[in-house]
Each structure stands twice: as C-alpha cells, then as structure tokens.
Amino acid sequence: MAGSADFDLYRPSEEHDMLRESVRSLAEAKIAPFAAAVDEEARFPQEALDALVANDLHAVHVPEAYGGAGADALATVIVIEEVARVCASSSLIPAVNKLGSLPVILSGSEELKKKYLGPLAKGDAMFSYCLSEPDAGSDAAGMKTKAVRDGDYWVLNGVKRWITNAGVSEYYTVMAVTDPEKRSRGISAFVVEKGDEGVSFGAPEKKLGIKGSPTREVYLDNVRIPADRMIGAEGTGFATAMKTLDHTRITIAAQALGIAQGALDYAKGYVQERKQFGKPIGDFQGVQFMLADMAMKLEAARQLTYAAAARSERISAGGKGEDLTFFGAAAKCYASDAAMEITTDAVQLLGGYGYTRDYPVERMMRDAKITQIYEGTNQVQRIVMARNLPQ
After folding, report:
1. Angle at 390 between CA 81 and CA 12, to 5 degrees
2. CA 135 to chain centre
3. How big is the CA angle at 182 (ends 180 and 183), to the nearest 5 degrees?
4. Closest CA to 39 of 329, 359, 295
5. Where exactly are the transmembrane stretches of this chain (predicted)?
6. Tell me, what's the pLDDT at 283?
7. Which residues 6+ apart lie within 8 Å of 147 measured at CB?
8. pLDDT tens digits, residue range 137-192?
9. What are the pLDDT digits (tens) for 260-291?
10. What SS3 string covers 226-256?
C-alpha cells in the first residue's frame, strides 16, 4: 500500500488539535494564574468554573439533544488534560460532571435526561457521583446506604464518603441498596438534589493534593424522593456504576497526563536556565536521560489513553467488542503511575527549589498521587485488567 501524508490512523483529527489549542490558551490565561492560590487557600476554583462555563467547556460530554456540546470521548479527554496541565483541582470540574451525569446518560429515562442534563449543559448545576462509603471503598458492592420504597417515593438513608465537589454540585447520582439479599444485583441508582430535605454535608477533608476540589461526606437522612428519580430499572444501579467507570477512568488518565505534562514542561524550561559548574544543568547527560524517560513514559501513557478514549466513543455509538473495561483500567493505571514518577522526577530536577511552594512542581507531585487512588485504586485496576485480558 502506498504511503500518504494524511494517514490519520494514529493521530487526533485537526478538530481535536484545534480544541487543544483553544483550551490551552484559555487555561493559561484564566485558570493558571489562580492555581497556586487555590491550592494554598484550599478554596474552590471559582475563576476556573466561570471560565469553563463561559466557554462551554465545563461539561462538553453532554449530548446536543439536551443542549450540550456533544463532544466525543477524546475531545473530553483533551479538555480535562489541558486544564489539569495548569490546575488539577480545576480539571475535576469537567471530569466529575461527566462521572456524575454519565449514569443518567447511559441508563436514565428520557424525562430524567431532559430534567438534569439541560441545567448541567447550561452551567446552572454541577453533578457529583456517590458510590464510596466509610466501609465500602474498593468493595463498593458492600455499601450500606439503603433506599426503601414508600408508595410513589423512595426514602434514602446512609453516608457517602470521598464525594468530589460535594456541597458545590446541585445533583448527585447516589447508589443505594434496594434489596439486601442480592448484593450487587440489589443496588439501584437515584438522582438526589442538593436541596432535597435530609441532604447534608460533612466538613471538607484536609487533603494532600487537589485541595481546590472540595471532598466531603454526603449524609442522607430520610431523604424522600419521587420514584421516577431512579436511574434505570431497580437492581441495575451497580451495573450502571461499573459501566460508567469503564468510560470515566479514561478521564482520570487524562488528568494524570495533564499533571505530568505540566511538570515536564516546567522542568524542561528550568534545566535550560539553571547553571551549575559553568553550564546549564540540561547539558548534563544524567539530567537529559531523566527528561528522556519522563517524556517517553508520558507519550506511552497518552497513546494508551487516547486509544481507550476512541474505544469509549465507539462503544457509546453502539460498537461491540472493544475491550473497554481492560483499556479503561490500563489507561488509568499506567497514566497515573507515570504521572507520579514524572512529577517526582520534576521535583528532583529542580533540587531544593522543587521542594518549595514557590515553584509549581511540588503541587503537581501532590496532585498526581490521587490519580493512583480514586475511581478504583491501581491495585483494583490490575484485578480488573487481569479479569478482562484482551482476546
């Protein structure tokens, strides 16, 4: 077969490249200037939310039928990646909006989609995801939160932990046990609103990183919601939760890519400026080899993540046999491990300066750590991969 310069098999489209450029310039102008203060003050990145909403980048995944941009999975990854490059906390806005709302997109009734996706697309509301509990982390099926039917209502009681953007989001996808005898097949999914009576929040967690993204417990105390707020059929909630994670683990990989890229970019500039022994430290082979390894790991992680995003998109369009469970887990696991290594090396390359808060790489190192933990620890990802090895 003859070669061709427009052989597009392994590169994003021109539209994707243009999207990256526009998100990058927006992130550098409107989000980066506040990143250090957001971390230092552990405050919500309101400037980032305002900028993302103004440019319709806060929830790009919402289908056009509900007023959204209808962006594909790779475009969503690129948005998250470019925001995370300057501020990991801010990248949780588009990422968690997708995580919280995807169960509604995948399994919700047409009425639920119209009711909840419209305000999300407009930027009037954010969406969080309530799966984990104090005693149900990796073993999510061991949850205790209950939903009991009462006429045309369900009454929810329980505690959800580690809920990203809790208290800021208007809407919450909540998994609850509707039939305790059936374990994972007895779990159902519901939309709970912040304003529902009986919903309250714990104090913000004091975290190592992503300090600008509030993480709080969500308390459900006799929360009575209409029966039509159930997402999908009774007993299908856990299956919906797992299907959601197959798609959204790729957004965590995207965060990891962005954090790692930001750290590599900074370190690359630093070693050209910093002089020791009469020349830039970037001239030393030991430093060059570190940068080469960092760039190589990052590129491998990016290719794996983009390939997983393409699979996610094909499955969303009705495709079959894409091994998404394996590829989503692999992308998340590999990219987050790479991000931890790359940010740690960036701190090393800056030496003592890297260890201070005057430079951004220590923040990036702290932020990278959570990508190895949330949406399934990397130990759990390896279990998932082993059970779903590609044929």
Report:
1. 30
2. 23
3. 75
4. 359
5. none
6. 98
7. 154, 155, 156, 176, 177, 178, 188, 190
8. 999 999 999 999 999 999 999 999 999 999 999 999 999 999 999 999 999 999 99
9. 999 999 999 999 999 999 999 999 999 999 99
10. EHHHEECCCCCHHHHHHHHHHHHHHHHHHHH
DSSP assignment string, 334-347: HHHHHHHHHHHHHH
Amino acid at the residue 44: F
Q: Backbone phi, then psi, for 153, in 5-degree steps?
A: -130, 165
Active site residue 322: no
The one catalytic residue in 81, 133, 322, 375 is: 375
What one-character-per-residue DSSP string does 51-71 give? HHHHTT-SSTTS-GGGTS---
**Beta carbons within 8 Å of 101's beta carbon, 6+ residues apart:** 59, 61, 62, 116, 117, 120, 127, 171, 173
Query: Would you say 131 and 140 are in contact if contact means Cβ atoms under 8 Å apart?
Result: yes
Phi, psi of 87 (to 5 degrees): -160, 105
Instruction: Write down the pTM of the prediction.
Output: 0.97
Q: Are 328 and 312 in contact (CB under 8 A)?
A: yes
Q: Rounded mean pLDDT of the chain?
A: 97
Enumerate the H helices of the chain as residue ranges.
Answer: 14-26, 32-41, 46-54, 73-86, 88-107, 110-122, 237-273, 285-316, 324-350, 361-370, 378-387
> Exposure string (b/e) for 28-55, b if CB count within 10 Å is 16 or more?
eebbbebbeebbeebebbebbbebbbee
Asked whether the CA dihedral 347, 351, 353, 356 is positive or negative, the reply is positive
CA distances from 165 to 7, 12, 95, 249 (A): 42, 31, 11, 17
Locate 29 and state its tokens.
């102008």
Burial of 329 (0-12, 13-18, 19+ CB in 10 A): buried
Let me know: does 73 contact 12? Beta carbons within 8 Å.
Answer: no
Beta bridge partners of 28: none
- Say which DSSP state 282 is in: G
The position carrying tokens 């590169």 is 11
Nearest of 194, 200, 185, 190 to residue 149 by alpha carbon? 190
User: What is the DSSP code string of 174-217?
Assistant: EEEES-GGGGGGGEEEEEEETTSTTEEE-PPP--SS-TTS-EEE
